[in-house]
Design a protein that fits this description.
The chain is mostly helical. Helices cover 75% and strands 0% of the residues.
């Protein structure tokens, strides 16, 4: 029996999670004025390759790729949720409790838009994976 070929590294690498991580890191570390002026280019450079490279995974329905895709998608949602929660907590402390001297995370609208687009890409990829799993199971069904 032939040994199945191992999937290539680009199929196992979390491109969407990397893009989300880089957008959050760039938002936290770069100068606010520079990032505000160049946000469209930065997100364009991070979103389009992530969408294309994540789309390559759809045609491959091995269990390892699908499992890692689900894990990385859950980690993406966790990371964005933690960033959004930290930004919301900082806003709440400033607005309602009048605590001014705290360090807080600010997520401008363009960072939220980029994160939303990346999460929607993750959701679309998960549904495509589910279709691939259904197709695999239908091929194994003797009644079909």
């Amino acid at each position: 029996m032939a040994q199945p070929a191992k999937p290539s590294t680009f199929l196992l690498f979390p491109w969407g999670l990397l893009s989300i991580f880089l957008i959050l890191i760039l938002n936290l570390t770069l100068n606010d004025g520079w990032f505000r002026n160049n946000w469209s280019w930065i997100t364009l450079i991070l979103i389009i390759p992530a969408a294309i490279l994540e789309n390559f995974k759809v045609g491959y329905s091995t269990m390892r790729i699908m499992f890692l895709k689900c894990v990385f998608s859950l980690l993406s949602f966790l990371l964005v949720g933690m960033a959004f929660g930290a930004a919301l907590a900082g806003w709440h402390l400033t607005k309602f409790q009048s605590i001014q001297d705290i360090q807080k995370i600010t997520l401008p609208w363009y960072v939220l838009l980029a994160l939303t687009v990346l999460l929607l890409i993750q959701v679309a990829q998960l549904f495509s994976m589910l279709k691939a799993v259904k197709r695999e199971f239908m091929q194994l069904d003797p009644d079909q």
